[in-house]
Amino acid sequence: MALRPVQVNIKALDPAAVGRFWAEALGWSAYSPGVTTYVGPRGGLVWPDPVGLGIDVVPVPEPKTAVKNRVHIDLATTSADHQEQVVARLLALGATHAHVGQGEVPWTVLADPEGNEFCVLEPREVYRYTGPIAAVVVDCADPRAMARFWGEAVDWAVHTVTDDQAVLRDAKEVGPYLEFLRTPDVKTVPDRVHLDLLPYPGDDKEAEVRRLRGLGAGSLDLGQGDVPWTCLTDPEGHEFCVLSVD
Prior knowledge:
By secondary structure, the chain is an alpha+beta fold. It has four helices and 16 strands.
């Protein structure tokens, strides 16, 4: 049995507008088959067996608080000029500069039109072949504990584990990295951004959920009611969902 990360789930007051922003930002397509807006490489996400990590923008009634998201996206660039061009293009699309205590750093911190922070990285060789999303980054207190949980929870390979950072990536070495960075702040509000996981076709979703609970996942009630996905939390309280393969 195995689970794979298939979507970055972003909550928004206006999912269509936020979806259009991220589609333009990544050079992808946005389409809305229902209440949510999916963003993925041109041609769609090939649901229910997606080949990459897409974005699902879902409607919520409440705006983002002033608290920094504990999950964010890092965008890759290939040169200093490319980084500058990407930042300028994103600002023209409606992004704004964001200040999260980063100080003098070589990357640029921005926020999407509803305030979700993300970074445009300086060129780094490690992200040369990830595609436009270099990494999904999660703030945490204990990267080693996150590596133990997530290394068992998903079928991605663990690349690096230190006191300050844990790094995972698809075992086929395609797409973005999943990075857990040690930070001094603590979780105080529900995550505005989270990962959605999907079993492989033929696998038993409920068995996967039981396996995750055995690894230390907690149950989560967001008032979601009777839905085909299951909401859980990792050992540090980061929300995530296990989707149905049906």
